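Severity: low
Component: inverse-folding endpoint
Summary: output formatting inconsistent between runs
Steps to reproduce: submit the following structure tokens with default settings.
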């Protein structure tokens, strides 16, 4: 364990370098930070009295006929969608009051507001002779600071018990202070292992503080507290990222070995797969989560449960490197799980519901049986966790033995569960999950509620069409479902990943439905003689590296497309084959001076090969009608290897972005495109000019 963290050291080191650069603004900010840190160390602020509480979450404190009530604040209406759809929290009555706090897993993501864990917990308690109410304070996206704030105000609700289901959002970079960010900056160029170690120490300190606050709150109020330790979808979630730029010139070899190992695993060639995975680990120094996750799959194929779990957990935790890129899915790493367990054990008032242990007892290495995506629970997963919490809450009624708890069926309608699985398919596709997982959710949705097929058609129709969503009746139909609207509203960009389109089509049970789906895709007709289609606007093109774009229009401030994979694929639906022409402007990433070969393919056949370097090049490429087909046509650009270790100027730029707590890009770039137009062959050269 490293020594005590001195927040001055990383600031001083970076400031010294800044003073020799032109970045005076950051240098001034660091001077100011040094002053504040030094003053804080020498003169810590005196303890102040806690401010008066006038609200809890989005509910404002108001006097009521039976005592203090909390009414949902109109001023906070923009945040209503993140919380329980409850207008009023009544005054405390004679009933036992359990306050339920947590993140999106506790909110019941995908099922909310039709069915939530808090509602189900109240039902289980009441059907087991507990006269209890559950106040639902779970919030989608709850950050550590917000949890701390809720804990400081929860006494106003006069709870008889607390349940806290949180930890998945604690590893987001938003909880880092400026000095901690700069200490991480010191590690990135050459010491990624130290990056993980420092970040893990930050997570441990954060978990210590939050569990300590939960414990202090329970002891102050004289009530029991239950902390639910989150689990991760170990068996089926994939963080399929290439090695980051500080891994050197290994990208092409790594991808080749990865593809070989995947093929060997699929074919059951386990000894050969193990050899390939060993070679992969030597290349990426066990810093690519994919390698560890594939090793877990190898152990599962050999029915080695414990080694499989260890490998999957390693993949989950080494992925913390992705936190700097904002492409890390929420998760509760081992350092947080163990800190919760250790700190809770030190207090008689705090108990835990250990979800990793619960799921391991029933399924070994947990996967899609309990999880909708990386951490959000299926109906069965919710049921297992809620019953375990209810059993712990037997302390509220000592005369009722915990062992006598009767299990209660989860009251979720088939339509609600089907919609949840379809939403999960959409969400998983944006996280770059394999098509097999998307088909699993689509198949499950259709089996539960066959009419969900119409919602699938609606989604593909308005998300792949060029105009704003709201002008389409399909959007209005789907968004009229209260369960679906909050999830669809989050996505700014109009995207339908191609693997989701293919998964939906594959799971449609009837030939007539598949034919209708094909007709829907062809609504984006072939370009007329006076128009051109920009393939960079292809709604079906999407990779996990584009995930931040779903929520912000352009977080990296890019003026062009950047290829993060060695092959970039774009689709063009055509109602008929006709001669066309491509106007392409592209280059290799900055720093590439030598010419390298790039190949453009159409539907798997070579269309043109050409050489590129780091300067923009314009190309005009004819496309014969015989090479095209009715339906989806795929244009693929095959880029050269990512090249040697990135130059220091680019690395410094990304570290500076991290220092400002902005989106950064630590993964290799293969190529860049400023324009990719395709038009009918007689489209004028002047109009198609790049």
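Observed output (run 2 of 3):
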């Amino acid at each position: 364990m490293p020594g005590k963290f001195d927040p001055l050291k990383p600031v001083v080191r970076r400031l010294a370098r800044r003073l020799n650069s032109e970045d005076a603004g950051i240098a001034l900010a660091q001077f100011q930070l040094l002053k504040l840190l030094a003053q804080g160390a020498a003169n810590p602020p005196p303890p102040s009295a806690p401010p008066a509480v006038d609200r809890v979450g989005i509910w404002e404190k108001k006097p009521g006929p039976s005592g203090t009530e909390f009414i949902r604040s109109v001023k906070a209406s923009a945040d209503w969608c993140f919380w329980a759809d409850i207008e009023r929290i009544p005054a405390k009555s004679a009933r036992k009051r359990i306050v339920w706090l947590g993140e999106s897993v506790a909110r019941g993501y995908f099922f909310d507001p039709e069915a939530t864990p808090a509602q189900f917990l109240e039902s289980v308690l009441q059907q087991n002779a507990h006269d209890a109410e559950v106040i639902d304070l779970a919030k989608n996206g709850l950050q550590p600071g917000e949890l701390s704030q809720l804990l400081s105000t929860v006494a106003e609700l006069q709870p008889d018990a607390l349940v806290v289901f949180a930890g998945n959002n604690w590893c987001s970079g938003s909880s880092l202070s400026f000095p901690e960010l700069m200490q991480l900056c010191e590690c990135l160029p050459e010491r990624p292992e130290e990056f993980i170690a420092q970040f893990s120490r930050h997570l441990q300190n954060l978990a210590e503080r939050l569990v300590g606050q939960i414990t202090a709150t329970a002891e102050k109020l004289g009530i029991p507290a239950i902390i639910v330790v989150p689990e991760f979808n170990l068996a089926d979630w994939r963080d399929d990222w290439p090695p980051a730029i500080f891994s050197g010139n290994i990208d092409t070899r790594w991808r080749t070995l990865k593809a070989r190992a995947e093929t060997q695993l699929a074919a059951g060639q386990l000894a050969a797969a193990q050899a390939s995975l060993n070679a992969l680990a030597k290349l990426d120094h066990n810093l690519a989560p994919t390698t560890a996750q594939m090793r877990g799959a190898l152990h599962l194929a050999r029915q080695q449960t414990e080694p499989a779990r260890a490998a999957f957990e390693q993949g989950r935790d080494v992925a913390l490197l992705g936190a700097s890129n904002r492409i890390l899915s929420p998760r509760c790493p081992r350092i947080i799980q163990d800190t919760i367990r250790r700190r809770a054990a030190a207090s008689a008032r705090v108990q835990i519901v250990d979800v990793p242990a619960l799921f391991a007892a029933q399924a070994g290495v947990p996967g899609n049986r309990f999880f909708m995506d990386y951490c959000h629970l299926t109906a069965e997963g919710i049921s297992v966790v809620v019953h375990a919490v209810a059993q712990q809450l037997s302390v509220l009624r000592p005369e009722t033995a915990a062992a006598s708890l009767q299990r209660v069926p989860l009251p979720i309608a088939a339509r609600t569960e089907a919609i949840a699985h379809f939403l999960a398919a959409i969400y998983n596709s944006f996280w770059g999950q394999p098509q097999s997982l998307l088909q699993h959710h689509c198949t499950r949705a259709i089996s539960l509620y066959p009419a969900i097929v119409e919602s699938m058609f609606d989604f593909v129709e308005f998300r792949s069409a060029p105009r704003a969503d709201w002008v389409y009746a399909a959007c209005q139909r789907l968004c009229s479902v209260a369960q679906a609207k909050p999830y669809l509203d989050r996505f700014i960009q109009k995207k339908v990943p191609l693997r989701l389109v293919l998964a939906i089509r594959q799971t449609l049970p009837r030939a007539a439905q598949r034919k209708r789906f094909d007709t829907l895709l062809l609504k984006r007709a072939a370009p007329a003689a006076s128009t051109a289609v920009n393939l960079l606007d292809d709604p079906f093109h999407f990779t996990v590296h584009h995930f931040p774009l779903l929520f912000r229009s352009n977080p990296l401030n890019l003026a062009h497309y950047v290829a993060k994979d060695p092959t970039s694929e774009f689709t063009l639906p055509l109602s008929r084959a006709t001669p066309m022409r491509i106007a392409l402007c592209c280059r290799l990433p900055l720093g590439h001076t030598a010419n390298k070969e790039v190949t453009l393919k159409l539907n798997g056949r070579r269309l043109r090969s050409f050489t590129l370097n780091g300067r923009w090049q314009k190309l005009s490429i004819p496309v014969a009608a015989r090479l095209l087909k009715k339906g989806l046509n795929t244009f693929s650009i095959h880029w050269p290897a990512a090249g040697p270790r990135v130059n220091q100027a680019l690395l410094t730029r990304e570290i500076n972005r991290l220092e400002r707590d902005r989106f950064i890009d630590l993964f290799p770039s293969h190529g860049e495109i400023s324009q990719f137009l395709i038009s009918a062959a007689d489209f004028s050269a002047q109009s198609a000019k790049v």
